[in-house]
Amino acid sequence: MSIQIRAIAAVGRITNPWNEPLPTPEFVTAQAAAIGHLVLAACRGVESLKYLAKIDDERFGGRYPEDGFNNDSVDDGHVRWAVASAISTLDQCIAAASRFGKFRTCKGGEHSVRDFYGVWDSGKINDDRKLIPEPWLAWFDGIVADPRYLCVLRVRNCLIHSDARRGSYASTEPPAGHDMRFRYMVAPRAGTMLDTPVADVRSREVIEFACALASTHVLRFIETIEQLPLLARP
Question: How far apart are CA 158 and CA 186, in angstroms?
Fold first, then answer.
């Protein structure tokens, strides 16, 4: 069963457990529609990341093709696609959770993971997980405990809000293989760049981390929905 089909069944089980025209106006809500859209958007993000991982390996796994596109530009684009999509899938899940669990407090928008667990470039952490009720907190704690999350988030912040701190490889041979791609410096920033210990992760690793991060935690989110108690019939 695809992740989208499983999500549809899980959300439908909660929002319309009777599988019939909803009996009262309060059960026909924009809330239920918003939850469904958010969860399905997260599932599509997972599918797109799996597709990206496939085409990225085809593009960079061997000798780079002479296809008229600059290799560094394609590399940038693939990594940006990966990290933005992965973080977005988690944001869509917590937005759906805040509607499910009725702890949504933002006005005119949706919650993101950073509303409850924010990590600064310096390494400073704003932890407001106490605002999240169970069972959503257990799911959210899984994201925080996953080391791939901070790696993907830091690369995402660098590529979207500025330009990544990165290194590259030089060779007299024709470029080939993932080892010749950018490597990203994702250690917490302390003072200037030169003062910061460097933790490198290559482009392919970032894409693989992003795909695994989204796949793991979107699936766990759906599993959480599947365990919710059913609504009482009005």
Answer: 9
Residue 127: Cβ within 10 Å count: 10
Q: Angle CA(49)–CA(10)–CA(17) in degrees, nearest 5?
A: 160
Tokens of 160: 């979207």
Domain that holds residue 116: 3-168+179-226
User: 109 in a domain, yes or no?
Assistant: yes
Residue 25 lies in a domain: yes
119 pairs with which residues across the strands? 125
Domain count, the chain: 1
Round to whole Å and give the CA distance between 92 and 119: 18
144 and 117 Cβ atoms separated by less than 8 Å? yes
Please give the structure tokens belonging to residue 151.
Answer: 């790696």
Tokens of 183: 């490597």
CA-to-CA distance for 130 and 149, rounded, in angstroms? 20
Angstrom CA distances, 206 to 29, 124, 176, 185, 196, stand at 39, 22, 18, 11, 20
Span 76-113, pLDDT tens digits: 999 999 999 999 999 999 999 998 888 877 777 889 99
Rounded-to-integer distance, Cα 9 and Cα 105, Å: 27
| Contact call for residues 63 and 176 (beta carbons, < 8 A) | yes
Per-residue pLDDT tens for 11-37? 888 776 656 555 554 544 667 778 889
Q: How many CB atoms lie within 10 A of CB 155?
A: 31
Give yes or no for a contact between 182 and 79, defined as CB atoms under 8 angstroms apart: yes
